[in-house]
Amino acid sequence: MPIFDEEFLKTLYTKERFEDVLTYFKDEIKKRFPEWTAFNDDDFGTVLLELFAGIVDMFRFYQNVTAVESFPCLARLRESLVRHAKWFGYIPKPAGAAYVELEFTVDNPLLGANVPRGTKVMTKNESVTFETVDPLVIPPGQVKGVVGAVNATLVEGELLGRSTGERNQRLPLSRKPLVTLPALGHDELPYVRVWVGGEEWTQVRSLAWAAEAGGGPGKAFKVDIEADDTAYIVFGDGIFGNIPPKDAEIVATYYVGGGRQGNVGLGTVTRLVGNLTNIKSVTNITPGSGGSDRESEEELRRNIPSQVVTRGRAVTRQDYKRLLEAFAEVAAVSVYHPRDNVVEIYVLPAGGGKPSNELKKKLANYLENIRMITEDVRILDPTFVEVDIAMKIWTEPGYSPKEVASHVYQVLKENIGTPEFARVIYPSDVYDLVHLVPGVVKVDLDTLTRNKDPSEVEAVVAEPWEILVEGTFAIEAYPLTTEE
Q: Are 89 and 98 in contact (CB under 8 A)?
């Protein structure tokens, strides 16, 4: 049984409107004052009833809004969803910054060149900017050099203030939004480094784990991101996390930016911002990867309950599915147990295709500490199975057989192209789809099979690790004659 019955909640908090309240008032009047029989619109008593019904409707509206925002599955405001996430111990995912490898070419190989960290390079249309994460030295005699870059901006050595010596200090960062850097190993928490009195402290997901950072209760901090993306550095209370020494300077270095727009194509990052001595050209020799938008409101509605159900542990198939599909890079997951203590997880990444090695490693590392210790968990590629269809269709007078066949092809392509594990397509499904196309009056299905098996018409059944995709669609269209 689901935690929240969404349809029940919707009817509970939205069923009474102005007309319902007015009808209720009139029914009560008839019971209590049978002599009141006139309910004309121009009657003063009716006007008063409508006035009171309007007031009740207004109060009911505000009551409903408050009630709706009290449930993650119904809440409309991001502020409410972020508040729910904090209650359940769920950390909304910030944006991820894409990563590329930039290749710089020198003008005169005899001189060499230096590319400082933080050098900016944009795409050809200047819509996306990348910033180098390390300095690059191209020695004399070498023509090219390679360095990594991220679709984010480094904010270095920002003075947040001085410690007051109080518990649970919160200090805001001046720039936003914070990002994760998946390619650099910061894929769970946003990239933030903090120094207290010149000593670097450790970022943790929760200050309840601060002792793991060492130093007694723990020289640790956590990052708290509000609904408007403003981020705060939060310190402990002396029990869960140390209190920074009074008057100690607190300095932070972090990255802001990110987003899926950073997943650019190969050879598209070519416009150098500013001038560098002896640099002739630059280009990205790898496509952008790892860029993702912050967790949307719809994703929060779906993912927050998973924290309640799983308690952050992967035990059942649904636990694995809920936890992994909360990742922005994951479109769908299928969990299969081929034998005891073996869990095979097939992952369809966002955007389709097979998951990258980086994504599989990221998911495996995430599951390492939350799986059952006796289970062997394997992250695997899905198998794509082509569906082949051949049919004859007849069209109504006034319809072009060629155009109708083209429309049928698009309908089949869109339906078969919907990625889904373990899907079953019956012949009746194909007939139903085709008959929805205007102009189709008769259908003769000759072939419905997988991977070009011998021509036959039978249900196409995908295994738990398989995804059905478009194969060969052959559609012959004829005008319907009077004999037919």
A: no
Nearest-angstrom CA–CA distance, 97 and 140: 33
- List the chain domain ranges: 6-68, 95-151+260-284, 153-257, 312-380, 384-479
Which of 213, 189, 212 minimizes the C-alpha distance to 202? 213
Work out whether strand 99-106 and strand 279-284 pair parallel, antiparallel, or are unpaired.
antiparallel
Alpha carbon distances (Å) from 333 to 60, 188, 307, 322? 42, 19, 17, 9
- The Cα 81–Cα 200 span in angstroms is 32
Q: Quote the CA–CA distance of 355 and 237 in Å, as a whole number.
A: 42
Per DSSP, what are the bridge partners of residue 315? none
Mean pLDDT is lowest, of 36-45, 253-262, 286-295, for 36-45
- Dihedral in degrees, nearest 10, Cα atoms 36, 40, 44, 50: 100
Query: Does the domain at residues 312-380 carry the CATH identifier 3.30.300.30?
Result: yes
pTM to 2 decimal places: 0.62
pLDDT per position as a tens digit, 436-472:
999 999 999 988 988 777 667 788 888 999 999 888 8
Q: How many CA atoms lie within 13 A of 66 on its CB side?
A: 6
Q: Are 85 and 113 in contact (CB under 8 A)?
A: no
